[in-house]
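Hey, I'm writing a tutorial for new members on how sequence and structure tokens pair up, and I'd like a real worked example in the thread rather than a made-up one. If someone can provide the structure for the chain below, I'll link this post from the tutorial.
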Amino acid sequence: MVNYEIRSQVDASLRLAEKIGEADEKLSKSRMNLRDMLRYDYLMFLGFLFESDGTTALEEVKFVNDYLGFNMDVVKFIGFVYDKCRDKNFINTPPKSLMYIMKSDLTDGNIKTMDGRPVSKFVVETFNNLGAEFVSINGSTTTELANLSNYTIMLNDFLKEYGLYYKDGNVPNVNSGMYTNKNKPATGGAGSVARANAGQGSSNTQKKTDKDTKKEDKEKSLEELYEELNSLVGLKSVKQDLTNLINLIKVKKIREERGMKQPDINLHLVFSGNPGTGKTTVARLLAKIYKQLGVVSEGQLIEVDRSNLVAGYVGQTATKTMEVIDSAMGGILFIDEAYTLIKEGDEKDFGQEAVDTLLKRMEDDRDNFIVIVAGYTEKMEKFVNSNPGLKSRFNKYIFFKDYTGKELYKIFQSMCSKQEYEPDEEAAEYIQEYLTRRAEAHEDNFANAREVRNYIERCISRQATRIVNMDKPDDKAVRTFTIADVQEDKLPADEIMKSSAAEEEPEEEEEIRIETEAPAAETEAPVKVAANEDTTEVLKGPDNQNA
């Protein structure tokens, strides 16, 4: 059965490619036009995704012919797959048709989609949707889903590199709001996170507040939520794991619509990692993404810890936990520092009662809400393994790595941008080295992005003290951090500058593979491009194409 929505998307992308090709004088004279080149790249992509599962491949061949307009039989398709689509570098190489489309977007940009987006972004979305439809035919394998996710991640990263990924051309300022003051621990402990819905009021009040807030905000589309997720600094493995999971959900939905058997998917997750690595931020986005995908009905995230689940007297814990779970119906229940629910050797502790209540509701209402438990890696593994019920329900781990110094500086820039601050050149150099040293030292109390939030607050305080003593400071002065504002007592500026100068190395050249021949021609040698070279020079059109 043909999904005509996907088929229409494919046709629309081919028509746009045809317009771009006709507008390019050199490309229009080539033997293979851009429309056919894109169609060929779609075919290569489907061949790359194809996994022999013991069937005759008749369904896959029919799919290729229905969606791409080819006239292939099984023998021809299988031969094509093993002859053209098994190159180990395929998954790391953007299709050449996309490069020509990107060239159009980067130069005149006159040809756009009906909603005004770059054509290259629309084409990458088509690759993803077409691939998800293809792997659903006979039941997707782990390899197929991984290949689909990794290939589309590679394409999106390529668009980001040239500023074409985001819908309006601007990177969403997501990281700047990751660790606001309200997200600081209410009580001691570096592992605490935001409890926006876990104040002194009841769970019903929490849920009402969350819904009211959601009504006030314009609900974001699935595409916008993906952009927010991908705009988060770092978290490469997290994004890859979640993309795999989201693609699995998409395929399950496609099979459901076709009346086919669906794979069992356990959507309960363990988020493990150190404080300040973005676990709560990702959980909030995931709740909204799940709503757009139809996995949950409401999309709210209820954030709690032990204090919101466990009471001090017999019989109260179950009631308290049930109320919190009721507020999470239709959304995600996020339990931070979940390992604190179980205290070994303390028979009087009521945390086990909360766990037992949670497990029962996860079974009774398994289609109505999702649970994410979070905390330090080792402690979370011990927590999950402490109970057979927990182990059977939480078998998917998402690991959040600590940020590098470069990533922390990007978060610093994002937070500064939102608050309308910026460091001068000397201060910026100091900040980069300071954050790098903090990340490398990784002291016991180091809190990753929260460390950056606290550091910015100290910088703002020092700057304010300096500014009030100035006579009529201008806007630039009020906005700018100087070395005096950013310098920390434990790491003198002169020491950092000396270290930075000693470690500075010449800029390396970046190797970018740009293929300008048609699909059947030999691949050109890689083009050496300096890291600061203009992107329009990188994405040149073909001078002498023999396609």
